[in-house]
């Protein structure tokens, strides 16, 4: 599988409530190939759930969505979910009272398909009448691989969004603060420590208050996006966000887990050193996303955060402060370290998605639901699902080419504009490699700000150095076992990580922790994943 040059993520953020219970549609006739609901020219009524970002405006205000519902001859009553989907989903699926369609990133998982067998529609035959989905499968065969279960059935469709870079994570330091204090950009963990101490003690932002700087901040966890786990690259560990959120990575053809690796222990010891010195935000394990972003955006021209991670500077720090920050190369763990230096490689996760749209087996007019899905997978619609409607968000240049427009509000960054306007990365869509689209400023900045990571990422062989989690379909037995084991392992890991960073103690407790992690099923999961990794590599 060729290494792709592509785009994020986003991290699904939380906040609202379910609207009303949503049963399968009660109009239309599954035997009617034209999807008529009984009256000539009338629309088929469907129900749907969409899992969206809290910033995203109501679906009724999305021009592109109204257009494709019209084109498909359907009228969809949407429930818009922005919080606690995992909990709400469990209740909904257990009741069997489900909508016709689900939309969102891995909105219904392979494990859900196994647990609630018969609740979801195998779309294999319906896709024969969906030329846009077929085109995606033909042009990007890996999307069919992602969509197809081991038994050949297709319950959820993949997405492909083409433009994202090879990594979700960029590492930022306030260059203005470095210049103010006459400091060089750090290249090792020890140099970073010294710089952060200077940020804390020497009024780095120059506002006369030596106590308002936060030298280092992140969202609090150890897995997934934008957190210190990427520092493990300074000891040769190559992460990949679709599995490294639970510690897994590949090294020399072997699946491993950094949560019980001695290099992780070294990282936690370093973070505890930073925390004890007052160099990490004291609220790092308690603040929410809104507070995290607000702190990084400072006060006017006065920045508050010195070092952190993010998608792009304008999103992390806002348009006003973004010019103060520089993206960085990976930091070596020490000046004496002579091994490989790596970074997180997230191309699979960013450019592809699994189960982004799912149909209920209870849907009474499956052909109408598939007509809607087919419209959704038009490449010209795909760019609107991702970036917003043609007109306010995208310019149609009239010659088969398009351009992403800047936000109408000049104070808003392009990333916020995108997430406000449309489903964005959470949607189900296909953007063909042949469509001519000029990207917005933020995406151009992402590519530019990824330059310091280029050498490290160039060393990654995406076919063998990355666990292909996006493309793997586990058996029901393995899926269930891994899910239970991961829950137990991560409960232990999250609790100990926060404690060890803030209070220390990892050296004394490490051996017992490793044994407890093994008892929780970590080694069993590594064994299972190795089997699927070997199977994947053998077919390359």
From TrEMBL:
Domain of life: Bacteria
SUPFAM superfamilies: Periplasmic binding protein-like II
Record flagged with keyword Cell membrane: yes
Signal peptide: 1-21
One Pfam match: SBP_bac_1
Keyword match Ribosomal protein: no
Keywords: Cell membrane, Lipoprotein, Membrane, Palmitate, Signal
Protein name as annotated: Carbohydrate ABC transporter substrate-binding protein, CUT1 family (TC 3.A.1.1.-)
């Amino acid at each position: 599988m060729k290494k792709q040059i592509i785009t994020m993520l986003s991290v699904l953020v939380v906040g609202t409530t379910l609207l009303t219970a949503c049963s399968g549609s009660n109009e239309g006739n599954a035997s009617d190939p034209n999807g008529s609901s009984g009256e000539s020219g009338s629309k088929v009524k469907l129900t749907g759930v969409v899992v969206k970002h809290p910033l995203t405006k109501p679906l009724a205000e999305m021009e592109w969505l109204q257009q494709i519902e019209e084109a498909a001859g359907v009228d969809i009553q949407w429930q818009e979910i922005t919080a606690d989907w995992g909990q709400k989903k469990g209740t909904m699926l257990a009741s069997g009272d489900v909508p016709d369609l689900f939309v969102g990133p891995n909105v219904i998982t392979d494990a859900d398909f196994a647990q609630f067998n018969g609740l979801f529609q195998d779309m294999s035959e319906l896709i024969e009448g969906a030329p846009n989905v077929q085109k995606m499968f033909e042009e990007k065969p890996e999307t069919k691989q992602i969509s197809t279960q081991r038994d050949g059935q297709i319950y959820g469709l993949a997405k492909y969004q083409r433009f994202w870079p090879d990594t979700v994570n960029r590492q930022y330091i306030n260059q203005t603060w470095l210049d103010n204090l006459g400091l060089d950009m750090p290249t090792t963990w020890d140099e970073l420590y010294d710089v952060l101490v200077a940020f804390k003690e020497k009024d780095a932002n120059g506002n006369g208050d030596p106590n308002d700087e936060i030298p280092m901040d992140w969202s609090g966890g150890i897995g997934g996006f934008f957190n210190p786990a990427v520092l493990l690259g300074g000891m040769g560990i190559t992460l990949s966000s679709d599995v490294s959120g639970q510690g897994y990575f590949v090294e020399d053809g072997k699946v491993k887990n950094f949560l019980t690796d001695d290099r992780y222990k070294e990282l936690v010891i370093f973070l505890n050193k930073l925390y004890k010195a007052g160099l990490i935000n004291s609220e790092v394990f308690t603040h929410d996303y809104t507070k995290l972003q607000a702190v990084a955006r400072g006060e006017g021209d006065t920045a508050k955060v010195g070092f952190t991670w993010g998608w792009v500077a304008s999103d992390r720090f806002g348009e006003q402060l973004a010019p103060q920050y520089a993206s960085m190369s990976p930091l070596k763990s020490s000046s004496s370290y002579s091994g490989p230096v790596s970074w997180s490689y997230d191309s699979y996760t960013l450019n592809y998605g699994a189960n982004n749209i799912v149909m209920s087996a209870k849907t009474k007019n499956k052909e109408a639901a598939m007509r809607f899905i087919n419209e959704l997978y038009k490449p010209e619609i795909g760019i609107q699902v991702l970036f917003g409607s043609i007109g306010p968000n995208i310019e149609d240049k009239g010659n088969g080419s398009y351009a992403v427009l800047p936000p109408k509000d000049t104070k808003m960054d392009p990333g916020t504009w995108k997430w406000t306007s449309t489903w964005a990365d959470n949607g189900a869509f296909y953007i063909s490699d042949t469509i001519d689209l000029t990207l917005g400023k933020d995406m151009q900045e992402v590519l530019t700000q990824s330059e310091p990571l280029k050498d490290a990422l160039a060393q990654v062989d995406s076919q063998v150095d990355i666990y292909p989690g996006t493309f793997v379909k586990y058996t029901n037995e393995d899926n269930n076992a891994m899910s239970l084991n991961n829950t137990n392992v991560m409960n232990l890991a999250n609790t100990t990580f926060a404690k060890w960073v803030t209070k220390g103690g990892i050296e004394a407790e490490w051996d017992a922790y490793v044994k407890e992690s093994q008892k929780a099923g970590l080694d069993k999961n590594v064994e299972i994943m190795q089997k699927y990794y070997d199977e994947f590599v053998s077919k390359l």
